[in-house]
Protein 1
Amino acid sequence: MRAAVLHEIGQDKLEVLDDVEAVGFGPGKVRLRIRATGLCHSDVSAMNGVLPQPAPFIPGHEGAGEVVDVGDGVTGLSAGDRVLVCWLPACGACPSCKRGQTHLCLAGFMNAGTPNFKRPGGDVFGFAGTGTFTEEVVVGAGCAVPIPDDVPFEIAALIGCGVTTGLGAAINTAQVETGSSVAVIGCGGVGISTIQGARVRGAAQIVAVDPVASRREAALRFGATEAVSPDELTDAKQRITAGEGFDYVFEVVGKSATARTAYENTRRGGTLCIVGAGAMDDNFQANMFELFFDEKRILPSMYGGGDVLRSYERAIALWRAGRIDLESMITHRVRLDGINDALDQMRTGESLRTCVEL
């Protein structure tokens, strides 16, 4: 079968091969035929080593498709079911799950160390234990979440990661208050979803911050009340908040420099929400006096900060009601052979979300 493979960490191009086999099918597993997958910045971060991932590997974790076969012991799924891929399934038994923090379950991460593909030359890993830049993949049954018939595969794929992450940051983690002021730093697919979440929560001002003009223009279409470049943020803070700072600032880049900018633009007593996935050696710094004196809440948000199954349902309900726009987030569509062009478009900021159709 065909798949896009990264041979070594640090390479910037994927090789589309036709000699890849999905392996590991058995009890508790399902085989999926991928129909659509989104290109998420986390895929690029894994390719360049910012996020830890063994290689060679197949990127992709934001996917949707159909069940081809189910292993022994799998209930609630059968061949032909339409599903989205959940890259962080909850085991239901660990301390995090028992506390109701299912999004912090580590069971899914453990899968990343087990190859779920092979080639004639050896084992191949799937990113985050999945790997959706491929025609078929074998995953644990908990990774396959049924979707209603009226949800297109490309929409379901986005809900599988970027939309859930961004919406959840505003709704679950920060719990944006009606009438508040919000700034979102980084307006790719996750940032746009954060803007939509803040709008759903009733924020009065939503300032989108991004160096790419096309992304600033897009942010306005998705609910931002103003869009500025990074060097215009100080002026926006002065005009909108009289210099006090925003009630909520979302960092959706994953770098300590932008996190520090976000902190400085959050009002005293306000909330800084860290959404971007960054490197382990990139350290955020704050002095002990400002932490105490300013009482700014620093809230990291992992995968939307809530039960992902409930978050999927909520995203579908909001989409059906026309409260969020997911179709327009897909700015580019490619086949698997065009994956490297799509990667370049993401790196330059030209695309919000690219849908890879398989």
Note: The two ends are 11 Å apart (CA to CA).
Protein 2
Amino acid sequence: MAKQPIKLNSKTILNSDGQLSQISPQRTVGLTDTIAKHPLWELAFRPWFIAASLLSCISMLAWWLALTGNDIMLSNSSLSPVVWHIHEMLFGFGATIAVGFLLTAAQTWTGKQSIHGWGLIALTLIWLVARGLIWFATDGLQWLTVGMQSLWWLISITYLAMMVVTAKSQRNYQFIPLLSMMMLLNIGVLLSDFANNTALALHLSRSAILVFGLLVGIVAGRVIPFFTGRGAQHAKVAATPMLDKLLLISTVIGASVFLLGYFVPLPFTPASLLILSGTLHLMRQYFWAPLATAKVPLLWSLHASYFALAIGLIGLGLSYHVETIRFADALHMITVGTIGAMILAMISRVSLGHTGRALSVHRNMIAAFALLLIGAVVRVALPSVGQPILGWQLSAGCWIIAFGLFLWHYIPILTAARASK
């Protein structure tokens, strides 16, 4: 019978051959390791898609109540109600989703590890603190509010910049100044409203929406024709390099003229540039075979939301000349029909693709895509026929149901491990 090893101490044994051997200590997996390695913290899209979507539902409910005269959910915020609404929907929701997408996509673009684990947890906590301060900050906490929102931006942009610069991914450098501009506008909105200059805060918010539209145009120009060519049968997608350049130029100049027009008297308005940008979007989409996507929900939802961007920009331009078209209503074609609807379509697809699941959505999500687009139409159309409150309420209801369906179907996916193939 072989001799059993004799244990001399916790780290050394005398084996059966009379030789001293070291015991390899087994690493104990602690609670902190378990938390940081949970699938939720693998990439930014997982926690931020959930958190931002939930925030949008709660924020839209609060705004719905405020529109009916019950502002109990907004009574503790030091922001004026309308600026609070725009800020949380544009920066708290939209920008969070966009940055989460870019930090996730950058890992594929660059081959560099994106933020994850404890770093992602810490950044998410900063985001949560900023949200709490936006909702409940008293006058004495205004600087802390600006600081926490700015810190989230700075860390996110710095991390993305390090990834694309170290990988020399020059094609993606453009996202750094774009996000930086969004950050500066965000800070300007907060500081302006805290200083009781709500008019300036609203102007900067609307400028940020135009910058967001530029971001949407760049990302859509990459993913929509690519996804359409791969996912729609008989789709003949053509490249549009000239239109891409013209769109970038017209959109940048148009947004700049709109922004500067508040501070400097200009001999012209951005109307023509906005109409031109919308028309160029329509022309570009024509080459992406939108009609071929009618049977693919993850594609027609993207095309429909991109179409809303074109219509919204044209509507903004026409609002300078046509009294019956209100600037604020046309703007909501972009915020609801493009930012909201395209985000819903993109996060539905990204959540499936980046967790190793088939690119097929539940029928409830098809209804969600349609609801959000309907919400955009009623938000724009009903005020023009004398029913603004009904339009706002129906649009808010469509939004809450649509993103509620996303949360219902995708929280289990975003919190679970990547599916094995």
Note: Residues 301 and 377 are 15 Å apart (CA to CA).
Protein 3
Amino acid sequence: MIAQFEQERTRLRAVAHRMLGSFAEADDALQEAWLRTDRADTSEVENPAAWLTTVVARVCLNMLRDRREHAFEMPDPVIDTAEEPEQRAVASDEVGLAMLIVLDTLKPDERLAFVLHDMFAVPFDDIAPLIDKTPAAARQLASRARKRVQDRPAPNVDLPKQREVVRAFLKASQEGDLEGLVSVLHPDVVLRAGALEVIGGRAVAGRANLFRRFASTAEVRFAVIGGEAGFVSRVDGVLFSAMSFTVRDGRIAAIHVIQDREQLAALIP
């Protein structure tokens, strides 16, 4: 079965990436799945590819469920005070940054059902045991997730106005202006950065104050990320992180932080 695992590695990694949204975490999931495969008795497995998919999915599901218990603090970028924005746009990877952002809003069981069924054509009969649901319930979870993906509100496409809001956010972050931050954040704003999820204007504003910490070492340039205003930060000239902002009605409704090095490499043309 290990030989089969290696043959399926590229596809299994794609499954893990869709589930977790991070190449680094996907590789961790594959390592754990490999160990489980090596220890398992697979003599009676009739469909190795399907069996391996469920092993990877189960590992990813456990990781998703554990995420909120292991939040981390984000490093702090410094504000770029130059008037000219960065001219290069940040391109989406093969999944699409917008899709990854939406997937991050789903509950673990919803994400698993949607990703496995809609992206990898795994039958609901095979998905159901992974989440301790009936096939009908798994179908309902996927349907609910699909609707959330389809109903995602369109962001404000006026990039100059988006950039003004983002610039105000960065300025307030650097100055430690809590009220200034709150004023540009929607009351229900969601900040997502890997395992970290923060909801609410004041909660996000408090977290954003941490951005000042690395002000002496980071350089920020504005960019367009997945069609939305954002910025990329570099430390000693090396790409360190990217942030995209969903702006609606002049306020920030969502912030998505990318720090996974491989994903960053895929985003930058």
Note: The longest strand covers residues 238-248.
